Amino acid sequence: METKLSANDEQCYEVFEPFCRWKKEEGLDILEVHLPGFKRQDVRVQIDNKGILTISGKQSMEEETASPPSRFLKEIKISTNCNASGIRAKFSHGILSISMPKKVPNLSTQLSGSGDKIKAAKIATWSAINYYLLGLRSKILSKEMVLKMAGVALGMALGGYAIYRYPKSACVQN
Questions:
Q1: Integer CA distances (angstroms), 98 to 27, 33, 45, 57, 70, in order
Q2: Sequence-ordered strand ranges (E) for 26-134
Q3: Which of 14, 18, 25 is nearest to 102 (CA)?
Q4: For the chain, which residues make up each domain, given as ranges?
Q5: For the chain, what percent of residues have pLDDT higher than 70?
Q6: For 14-104, which CATH class?
Q7: Model pTM greater than 0.70?
């Protein structure tokens, strides 16, 4: 007696880990998930309230192929500086692109809660200015020092020459 499998029966799937690549742009992180052989309706992207991004997919059994259909499940913890409500996904040519915009820092929050950070920034700025000015001052001092040393060396050379010439002429007159 022959039995047929109904649509509700378990199907055999090949589980795989898709290739993923991160792209970093200004204000945006993009995750590219390579899913060859998958269609848009085969892929699902969800984010929960704990900040876990779940990407899953299961190929449909439309075509008869020698290999079993594939499925995958990938979970990623999104960054705390990511704007979860702004996450968008796009599927094109077997590549799922998930755009995750970064949160824009609120200036009033930064100013109110970071008095120490502002002080540290001011100190760092002034120390950088002082370092720059000291560097200029040391360059000026070194130029002045070189000129003074050259003057002293010239004076010593002229004095030595005068001493060399003066005693000979004094001895001749005696």
A1: 14, 8, 9, 15, 21
A2: 28-34, 43-47, 52-58, 70-77, 88-92, 95-101
A3: 25
A4: 14-104, 108-173
A5: 64
A6: mainly beta
A7: no
